[in-house]
Design brief:
The structure holds two protein chains of two kinds. Chain A is 38% helix and 26% strand. Chain A is of the alpha/beta class. Chain B has one domain. The longest helix of chain B is centred in the first third of the chain and has 31 residues. The radius of gyration of chain B is 19 Å and the shape is globular. The chains are: A alpha/beta, B mainly alpha. The complex binds adenosine-5'-triphosphate and magnesium ion (MG). Magnesium ion binds next to helix 1 of chain A. Chain B: Keywords: Amino-acid transport, Cell membrane, Membrane, Transmembrane, Transmembrane helix, Transport.
Chain lengths: 242, 290
């Protein structure tokens, strides 16, 4: 648990975001703590993906985004990544033409500590043994689940302080989803990163999150400890289905 | 028989030039999905820089190195100043920029250096032909230089962190930024490298064809045919295609169509490839799962 007056790992204040002229985010306030999982929930088109893009400077934003207390809004996406923010984007962002090994090396592009990178490669193969067997394979030929594993491994090889995950369960078989979420829990415990996870599968996300936000058409309509949100009647009916 | 062998060797020598320029074209094409029609004129301009340095008394290889470096800077600057702001512009706007560049380099060269043909020195000496007389010193030397350039570029892209980052930035700029790669700088480096490769090609062909502002227009056409033949999405294929076009051009020119109609062969290759096999001989169709 962070000390009370230490800044949150990530804090957004009055965050607006737009694609060209079309405004999508209308003043979001949220925080992500170090060593914790924060879930961002909402229906299709609510603005979840857009929120992650706003954090990474991939779209035009207004308002404040602070990372470890320092403003990052307005900075270039690659500079934000080098600060230690890894993003598993919508659609997984695989470098299709390159090999699995090259995809992983790109994940560690921003790092100079060779020994640390080598150790992290070994750790990723511990989490995802299939990746080791497919190192020389063209990444575009991996299955959807394998590409998701590759995307997560690529993001972790940045040695991030903050990990943004956009629908890690998307398109995956339930068993693979469970595997990936188990691994993610291990990663949070073992690596002490902060995670902001976007999920359609709300029950899954609320099971591993300690804080959650509910997004509706670009506004946060509910925020609080994940346990409370899980118990909320309205959320249960609309998003959890029981 | 000896004549055929000689045509084959000359074909390989000029094929190396086409292969270099084809590689430069493919590098830009992979990053921008446009063919840089000005690649040849940029190489021609670089060759004038080399000639100016040599005439000012700089030793050949010194002039060579300075020319490659200056060309790199010019190429990178073109990307930063002209192409970068055009990143999201419609296709025709980019084509307009390329043609504008072509005309600009051509007319500035004509204005600065005049349109008269100028001899350009070969660093490999004038002596008699080698190996029983069917390969000239310049053919052998320029082929070696070309092979060194091609191998160095291949090793750079294959084995270095920067080379990998440049390939990633060309294929997938969005994901590249997310892992911390400054994509704009990578594209500028790519343009610089392409211009540097073109400069070497220009300096290697100039002793054969003489230097004038239109020296590279034919070369660009052969190189483009080579890139298409090998596969415009495959750098290695484009290089092989460049060599093949060199051989086809020389042998076809000597025995089939005659030297006057040689350039038509390039057009024939371009049309045939586009109709029969648009991906080229070695063009890889990337398997993408969605
Ligand atoms: N590139 C874009 N250009 C213009 N509008 C966009 C773009 N991407 C998303 N939008 C719009 O922004 C809104 C929010 O989209 P966003 O992708 O953030 O939703 P989401 O919550 O991630 O939905 P989903 O659960 O379907 O992934 C939508 O109305 C969408 O149409
Ligand atoms: Mg989304």
């Amino acid at each position: 648990m962070p000390t009370p007056d230490a800044p949150a790992l990530l804090e957004a204040v009055g965050l607006h975001g737009a694609y060209g002229e079309s405004k999508v985010l209308h003043g979001l306030d949220f925080v992500v703590d170090q060593g914790g999982v924060t879930a961002l929930l909402g229906a299709n088109g609510a603005g979840k993906t857009t929120t992650l893009r706003a954090i990474c400077g991939m779209i035009r934003t207004a308002g404040e985004i602070r990372f470890n207390g320092a403003r990052i809004d307005g900075r270039a996406t690659d500079a934000i990544a080098r600060l230690g923010i890894a993003h598993v984007p919508d659609g997984r962002g695989t470098f299709m033409e390159l090999t699995v090994a090259e995809n992983l090396r790109l994940g560690a592009y921003a790092r100079r500590d060779k020994a640390g990178v080598a150790a992290d490669f070994a750790r990723m193969f511990g989490y995802f043994p299939t990746l080791r067997e497919r190192l020389r394979q063209q990444a575009g030929t991996l299955s959807g689940g394998e590409q998701q594993m590759l995307a997560i491994a690529r993001a972790l090889l940045l040695h991030p302080k903050l990990l943004l995950l956009d629908e890690p369960s998307f398109g995956l078989a339930p068993r693979i989803v469970r595997d990936i979420f188990t691994i993610m829990q291990r990663i949070v415990q073992e690596e002490g990163v902060g995670v902001l996870v976007v999920e359609q599968n709300a029950s899954l996300a609320l099971a591993i999150a300690d804080r959650a936000y509910l997004l509706e058409t670009g506004r946060i309509v509910m925020a609080g400890p994940a346990a409370d949100i899980r118990r909320d009647e309205a959320v249960r009916r609309s998003y959890l289905g029981y | 028989m000896n004549g055929l062998l000689h045509q084959l060797v000359s074909g390989i020598a000029s094929g190396g030039i086409y292969a270099s320029v084809a590689l430069a074209l493919v590098m830009i094409y992979q990053a921008t999905h446009h063919v840089n029609f000005a690649q040849g004129e940029m190489a021609m301009f670089s060759t004038y820089i080399a000639l100016t340095l040599i005439e000012a008394g700089v030793p050949y290889w010194g002039a060579f190195v300075i020319t490659v470096a200056v060309s790199f800077v010019i190429g990178a600057a073109i990307q930063r100043v002209l192409m970068n702001p055009m990143a999201n512009a419609p296709v025709l706007a980019s084509v307009g920029i390329f043609i504008g560049l072509l005309l600009m380099f051509n007319s500035v060269a004509g204005w600065l250096f005049t349109y008269t043909l100028k001899p350009f020195p070969s660093p490999f000496g004038e002596g008699p032909p080698l190996f029983g007389g069917f390969v000239s010193r310049h053919e052998l030397g320029s082929t070696i230089v070309t092979l060194i350039v091609l191998l160095t570029v291949w090793a750079f892209f294959r084995f270095t962190r920067l080379g990998l980052a440049m390939r990633a930035a060309a294929f997938n700029p969005v994901s590249s930024r997310l892992v911390g790669i400054p994509v704009g700088s990578m594209l500028a480096l790519g343009w610089g490298l392409a211009a540097a490769i073109g400069a070497v090609a220009g300096m290697m062909i100039a002793p054969v064809v003489f230097l004038d502002p239109n020296m590279m227009s034919g070369v660009l056409l052969y190189a483009f045919a080579g890139a298409l033949l090998g596969g415009i999405t495959n750098p290695l294929g484009a290089v092989v295609g460049g060599f093949m076009v060199g051989v086809i051009e020389n042998i076809g020119g000597a025995y089939i169509v005659g030297t006057e109609l040689k350039l038509t062969l390039a057009l024939v290759i371009i049309v045939v490839v586009l109709v029969v096999r648009p991906a080229g001989l070695f063009g890889k169709t990337v398997v993408n799962r969605v």
